[in-house]
Amino acid sequence: MPDPVVALRNVSLERWMRDEYAYDLKNQIFSILEGRHQKQTRKAVLSEIDLEITRGEKVGVIGPNGAGKSTLLKTICGILYPTRGEVSTAGNIVPLLELGAGFDPDLPVVENIILYGVLLGSSRKVMIEKVPGVLEFAELQNYGSVPVKVLSSGMAARLGFAIATDVQPDILILDEVLSIGDEHFKQKCRRRLDRFWQEHVTVVIVSHELEFIRQACDRAIWLENGRVAFDGPAREAVARYLSAIERQAMEAIASLR
Amino acid sequence: MTGNPSGTAGSRFYELVHILTLRNLKVRYRGSVLGIYWSLLNPIIMTAVYSAIFSATFQRYYQGSALRYALAVFIGLVAVNFFSAATTQALPALVSGGMLLNKIKLPPAIFPLSMVVAQSFQLVVGILPALAIITVLIARVPYHVLLLPLPIAALIILSLGVAFFVSSLYVFFRDIPYLYELVTFLLWLTVPIFYPVAIVPEQVRSFLWLNPLYPVIESLRQIALDGTMPDFRLMGIAGLESLGVLAVGWLVFVANRRKFMDFV
Predict the structure, then answer these.
(1) Which residues of chain B have a CB within 8 Å of the CB of A111?
(2) pLDDT tens for residues B91-105?
(3) Of B3, B6, B261, which is closest to A80 when you measure between CB atoms?
(4) Neighbours of A33 (CB within 10 A)
């Protein structure tokens, strides 16, 4: 068995519940003085996850909303730290989570390309050289000196995709980003992603497009309530997930009767 | 952990702070280099107003010279202005960087740090030359100019420590800005900026030393305005207090670092 590039060992992750949190020092002090202070609670988002991904594998992550899919990706990226267990990764991880998060709306497009590229792991020098190529791919050659806030959301997404995929990742992390721009640009994105697919880039992707997962991934992980419900061939994972949904729907209908 | 194409963790950290500092400066000045000198306008106007009101009363504490009074006020103002601008801008830095922290693996420290570095750039490029000119003209000891960076460094370290502290607190308590406004006002008032320390009652005077800005400003004044050898003990106090504040601020920051992600 080859070395894993991503390994999660018995990973559990709890997050502080912020919806119950007041964010207010004054109220916190008053509530302590009046003896009605509630201790902050933590909620388990991932539980006891064991996972190994080997070089070049294309892994889909499926499951209902709130199952912990995005949290799992963030844990692999090193954005979130596991409460228990261990995460180890090897190689350059490029996260493609909601494109354009790194843009400063007041700065011109060119400055933003450099800024976003450096945030994603390049150096400033390298990014300055890459500017023309990124502008060309995003088809924004005439917009270099325009502030990003002037761009349409589609243009901004194109720009984000162009920057993020211009680096050579060892591990590419995708969170529902395949459908951006018009049909013409979508195909362009597909082609660029296909290149990663053919090269030996490891890809971990969260998607609700089960058909895509079934076709494009070798393997899929089905998450349910922060636990791995199934981990195996994509075809089988999708089939099991779908039948579980069907079963739930049937039960729901039955309970209505 | 995560490898990266731009080399070691140290150079990655440098790249990040560099790019964010550039962004902060660009957003602030919009390509106009003169913007940096604009920051001198506020202390100059304030100095003029203080001089007009208090100079007649207070100049006898400044060798009877209205100019010396004005320069002492100016030096105090630029230092305190730097401190409050740097820390007030760093205060929301973690929260406004929160979106990025949630998308890309980044060391959270780069956000408050780059705010302080941008402000420090303005201090070194805009204000330090003014202080050097004052030193040459008033203290008339050219090598004193070489001593100016010491209290300036203490001032930056102090501001950085406070920046780490308040930016951490702001993640959890969003009403901190109101409180912090009061704190900066108290710090401003308890440093002898526009009044001579001699008018402060003896019993109260020793409490003024609790304000870490005081030894910094007093050192700057000695270097820039007095021809005699400045008090190195005072500079030592300024340095130690600043490092102490930095240590505390950093410890608070590090202790909460992993919790930030759940609250920003």
Answers:
(1) 23, 26
(2) 999 999 988 898 888
(3) B261
(4) 9
The residue range of the domain holding A157 is 96-167
pLDDT band at A156; cut points 50, 70, 90:
confident
Neighbour order of strands in the sheet with A93-97: A93-97, A171-175, A202-206, A58-62, A219-224, A227-233
pLDDT at B150: 95
Domain co-membership, A33 together with A143? no
Per-residue pLDDT tens over the stretch A198-211: 888 898 999 888 98
Answer whether B102 sits within 8 Å of A74, measured CB to CB: yes
Same domain, A77 and A130: no
Check: CB of residue A99 under 8 Å from CB of residue A157. Answer: yes
Instruction: Provide ipTM, 2 decimals.
Output: 0.86
3-class secondary-structure state, position A182: coil
Q: Using an 8 Å Cβ cutoff, are B219 and B151 in contact?
A: yes
Longest dimension (CA), chain A: 67
Domain CATH number, residue A126: 1.10.8
A16 touches chain B (CB under 8 A): yes
Residues found in chain A: 257
The token duo for B164 is 């780490």
Q: Which two tokens stand for residue B100?
A: 């990025």
Q: Are residues A106 and A25 in the same domain?
A: no
Q: How many CA atoms lie within 13 A of A20 on its CB side?
A: 10
